[in-house]
Amino acid sequence: MYPPLPRLGDYDVSALNGFLPSEPPCELLSDEYYAPWESVIRNMHSFLLTKRLRSVVQGLPVLYTDLLRGEKEWRRAYSILGIVTHAYVWGANSPADVSLSCFSYLQN
Hints:
- Helix content is 38%, strand content 0%.
- The chain is extended, with a radius of gyration of 18 Å.
- It has 4 helices and no strands.
- Helix 1 crosses helix 4.
- The chain has one domain.
């Protein structure tokens, strides 16, 4: 006997939207605290073209997620940070060597 098939809804998958959320995504994080993230994502194209993305990212403050409001903002923050990370590593002439030494703030 085969086990029952999982329900798509248990995995936030719907027959109508597939893996996409049922509501439109958040277009902007609501708290000004996250303005540095929004600024980087808004200016990503020009930072990549001028080869300044890595220096901009290295100058960002460490921000915490305490002020995110709801799942929509968590999804936006996750998307922003994922895109910025990808661009940081692959957005120059050679891949960035990202090691734990880059995260010295975690050791404090």
